Amino acid sequence: MRFSFAHTVASTALLIAVCNAAVAKPAVLRHASILERAEQVEGTYDYVIVGAGTAGLTLADRLTEDGQYTVLVIEYCHLSKFPFFTVIQRSDGRNFNDPGTRYNITSIPQPEMNNRRQAVWIGCCVGGSSAINGMVMVRGTKEEYDGWAELGGPDSTWNWDGILPYFKKASHFTPPNEELAEAFNITWDPNAWGQDENTRIYASFPTYQNPTMIPMYQALSKLPGVEIPLDGAGGNSGLFWNPTSMDPVNFWRSYARTGHYDNITRSNYEVITEHKVLKVLFDGTTATGVQFAPRNNLQNALTVKANKEVIIAAGTVHTPQILQASGIGPQSLLGQADIPVVVDLPGVGQNFQDHAYLSVGFRWGSGSPPAPPVSGNGDPSTLSGPNLGAWIGLPVISDDHEAIAARYEAQDPAEYLPEGTDPTVVAGYADFQKLHAKLLRSKNVNLLWLPLMGAPGGIIMSMHVVSHGTINIDPGNPQAEPIVDYRALTNPIDLDIMAENINFMRKYMASPDFAQYSPTETSPGADVTGEALKDWIRRTIIPTNFHPIATAAKKPREKGGVVDENLLVHGTERLRVVDGSIMPLLPGANTQQPVYMLAEKAVDIIKAAQ
Ligand SMILES: Cc1cc2nc3c(=O)[nH]c(=O)nc-3n(C[C@H](O)[C@H](O)[C@H](O)COP(=O)(O)OP(=O)(O)OC[C@H]3O[C@@H](n4cnc5c(N)ncnc54)[C@H](O)[C@@H]3O)c2cc1C
Ligand SMILES: *[C@@H]1O[C@H](CO)[C@@H](O)[C@H](O)[C@H]1NC(C)=O
Ligand SMILES: *[C@@H]1O[C@H](CO)[C@@H](O)[C@H](O)[C@H]1NC(C)=O
Ligand SMILES: *[C@@H]1O[C@H](CO)[C@@H](O)[C@H](O)[C@H]1NC(C)=O
To answer: Does any domain span residue 71?
Structure first.
């Protein structure tokens, strides 16, 4: 109950500070209905942040740290309470797909996936998606972030050198214990990690690893072209160990709530839960505040003003909805929905990307590779996600990489985008295509992620997807859940790449180290190749690893971008977007560390603007 108590204290302090009232009952304040609040307080904050998720709480914590500014965070979902928050923090897996802590959104049917639909999992509680994620802590490579800068224009500071300090600031790293490190060859790059005392998002290791990973590690390390860097934190591809977002002392989930919300008692930091932001309010094109309403009573709308800025941190799925509902988006879509246009910004909700995966089944035909005994291997219950993986580029995966890159480069950029895509969005895709052809030819790009878990076969993750989807409002009901369209496999290059990734898994399973155990492919089966393999991919691919990005991409306006290099929404004043939606290009990494990083960088940008 300590956690809720801390929240109560913060709310109480703010109300006292603002309205100079007597102390009210904590029970009332914790769930203060906004109507009561609106009557009591002036309704103005320096910053109004939409969404108490991964980015939103990072911003709120950092912007209130020095006591200069007041911040209100408005969150649609709830603050999970005992015992449920324990389930989240123990990270025992249930929370991954628990209707109590996620949205219930499903994509529209995907024609290239045999019309299957995909569940769109994103977190719904204070902490957002960081509360339900798989806790893998990886960054992606130097080339990928240099690509973020390249798509941003010549003055961009979002290249590797410009973001590394924020990666270091965003999490506090603790190395694995010595016995574990030695037994499993775990190394790390001390220059790439930070240990800031003011950072409570932790990156650490469990005390246990499964010894069956040792023969897998050794077989993979012998494949031609596979590098073994210290780890990936310095922006490298290869076979390496990665930490987990986990408290190094109690081995519980470390997430935006524990890192940037719990135990913070500041009179200038308030979070209101179970209220939905309906739209941003403008004076001309200057954001002045937001309209919001109780989640269960959207008719009962209220407003709150922002003295300095409105910052949208509602995540990749809902940020475009809020922008479009506010009159910022493709003019024709806004017209269909009868929403008055504030800024015609065709890129809002376009450029949507996510990682895609499937599983290839193998079993050992006779015996299994020996798992060496590991002395001092700790407690298996401290494990929570894969800590070992191969993250590799197309030239290592496939001899066909040049042909695939050339084929992709030769496409007409509009060919596989939705019909009627705005010319600025097509121009942005043309840049993406040029950049991507370069990435397909580079060894230092995490095109494939093969998490190693100590068993034959397993998950194959395509980390760079060239089919771009859309997330738009439903014009008939803009406040209903948005329409998510992955447009999975609409660009045939994604099929080619997934087929190469599967072939790489086959090559790895055919390692001489494994020969005596007769590995057998059970699904789809070794004889499934060519067009039949592509059909199997269509039937089984999952077009998300729950890493949606780019629906408010940081790119120039004439390139279909939504925010500029300072994350200000094009064509507006005092309105920023800071969350996963601003990433213009997928990093070859799970996206939480990149989100924490970009929020930390945004804090410096926002403070510098004062
Ligand atoms: C199941 C799952 C597994 C994952 N596994 C990993 C992993 O292992 N490693 C990794 O690095 N990443 C992982 N990720 C991805 C990572 O967690 C996300 O990329 C990241 O947390 C997104 O942060 P965000 O701030 O953009 O959005 P979120 O953290 O989702 O925050 C958005 C917040 O805005 C709120 N909101 C939305 N609309 C409104 C509105 N209208 N009004 C008020 N509030 C609103 C939402 O309720 C939410 O709290 C996973 C994600 C999921 C869902
Ligand atoms: C999702 O559905 C469950 C019921 O199955 C419900 O409790 C939960 O509130 C829903 N979540 C959202 C965000 O609507
Ligand atoms: C550790 O790495 C060395 C050098 O690459 C290798 O010889 C050894 O087998 C590895 N040990 C394990 C446990 O993988
Ligand atoms: C909050 O503070 C208490 C008391 O110091 C501590 O036990 C708890 O772990 C803290 N919680 C977090 C998330 O830091």
So the answer is: no
